[in-house]
Amino acid sequence: MQIKDWKNAQVKETPHKVDVRPLYNKETAQVVHILLKPGETLLPHITPVDVFFYILEGEATVTIGEETRSVGPDHLVESPADILHNVANNGEEPMRFLVVKAPRPVKASKIL
């Protein structure tokens, strides 16, 4: 059995310049933990596979295509492949969420 604590996972350098920690990386899926401090955001980007965001703590502002919604803890937001999306923390507290990509992408996301 493998058990990972997100706090012990190494921060990965990404174009987003936020706290991104890979937790699971198999051919069938990829999971990363992201911590956004107040005012931080992911850059708008397009992912070549289906993605979902699961909000753990805080309040997220999620944009999928042309739609933007505020999403709180214990909610899951789906983003289909090849759709522009981003997640922002417009609140006053840190916000944590999981990003799950399935299957693991074989080409990089397109940052806009």
Number of strands: 10
Strand order of the largest sheet: 1-2-9-4-7
Compute the gyration radius: what is it?
Answer: 13 Å
Shape: globular
The biggest beta sheet, please? 5 strands, antiparallel
Describe the structure.
This protein is mainly beta. The chain has a single domain (6-111), classed as Jelly Rolls. Helix content is 0%, strand content 49%. The chain contains no helices and ten strands. It has strands spanning 19-26, 29-36, 45-46, 50-57, 60-64, 67-71, 76-79, 84-88, 95-102, 110-111. Strands 1-2-9-4-7 form a five-stranded antiparallel sheet, with no helix packed on it. The chain has a five-stranded antiparallel sheet with strand order 6-5-8-3-10, with no helix packed on it. A hairpin with a 2-residue loop joins β5 (60-64) and β6. The chain is globular and about 35 Å long. The chain starts with 18 loop residues before the first strand and ends with a strand. The model has no long low-confidence stretch (mean pLDDT 96).
Attribute tags:
49% strand; Jelly Rolls; 0% helix; 112 residues
